[in-house]
Amino acid sequence: MSLNPKIRNEAETLVKEQMAAYDPSHDWLHVDRVRRQALKIAREEIKASREVDLELVELAALFHDIGDAKFHKEGQPTGREIVMTFMAQHGYAKAETVARIVENVSFRKELAGVKNEWAQSCIELHIVQDADKLDAIGAFGIMRCAAYSGYKNRPLYDPEEKAQLNMTYEQYQAQTKANVGCAISHFHEKLFRLKDMMKTQTAVQMAQRRHDMMVEFVARIEEEYSMDE
């Protein structure tokens, strides 16, 4: 079932207001790309005979960055609180499921390695996770990485910096808190890992091309810095 147009319009308005406070790597246009990508994946999964709730996928994709930990400030309502308030206003029966998906979408949560039967089986969660990962890699992923590094005033490339390969959740949290790490290290620490973290067959097929583009881009950066062209 598709999303009610009234709920869609009001959700879009709320999300646009929330995203206006974020940098271009996490703006409304990012959310809209993830929403469109999630629906594309969902329809392909349906063609492959998987049961998917399109309404749930669209709502969760629209709200997936609400209350993002990277931008959340003490005293502000959490993503769950914003989602549940919105859903209560519209009498939406699947509010709890939308909130659970929003809480579990991020790479940070996956890195934490918290396992539960629901997260391992919810196809709508997997679709939104994959759509969000796909927007983090490839051409848009490259631009978003640079935009976020600029927002955080981090170097684009530091040849003296050694990337932390196979970064743990604790290392990722510590790096975020310390606001360190150049943009190119981020490719090695996170972005190159995303291809192998896709959960739907549709996203697996889409990810390789975007991954290859990033590998070529990073190689070109290192080549240009070396002056060996």
Averaged pLDDT? 93
The name of the CATH architecture is Orthogonal Bundle
The low-confidence parts are: none
Helices and strands, in order, run as: HHHHHHHHHHHH
Oligomer: single chain
**Global geometry:** globular
Structural class determined from secondary elements: mainly alpha
**What is the tally of helical segments?**
12
> Between the first and last Cα atoms, what is the distance in angstroms?
54 Å
How many domains make up the 3D coordinates? 1
Biggest sheet architecture: none
Number of strands: 0
Give helix % range: 55-70%
Domain HD/PDEase: 23-146
Protein name: HD/PDEase domain-containing protein
Pfam family, one: HD
Organism: Lunasporangiospora selenospora
Task: Name the descriptors.
mainly alpha; HD/PDEase_dom; single chain; HD/PDEase domain-containing protein; Hypothetical protein af1432; 64% helix; 229 residues; HD_domain
Task: Characterise this structure.
Helices cover 64% and strands 0% of the residues. Helix 3 crosses helix 8 and helix 8 runs parallel beside helix 12. The protein has one domain: Hypothetical protein af1432. It has helices at residues 5-19, 28-47, 54-63, 79-90, 95-104, 107-112, 117-121, 123-134, 138-151, 169-178, 183-189, 201-226. By secondary structure, it is mainly α.
